[in-house]
Amino acid sequence: MAMATKLVSSFAVFPILFLVIFEVPKTEAQDTECLVEYGGDVGFAFCAPLIYPPFCYTRCRGDKGSKGGRCVTGEGNKYKCLCDFCTDNYKPPFDQILSGI
Q: How far does the signal peptide extend, from start to end residue (predicted)?
């Protein structure tokens, strides 16, 4: 009888483990899949921090159909605009200041 319950328990555990392993959600897209360069050295005016929203953000949304855009500084003060197709996490500078109050 003990052997029969052990066998039934084994048959019950394996399908459950099989389902758990294959139903694990897949990982989200990597940053390399989310961020696409808008186009070369766009210049400081395209990424100026005091303009809200920056041209990089609005152009990526309008021209490329992305959710947002962010600027990064490269070698020799060259600015690159990266269009973000996964998240829209842009916060204006004054929101960051007010959230600290």
A: 1-29
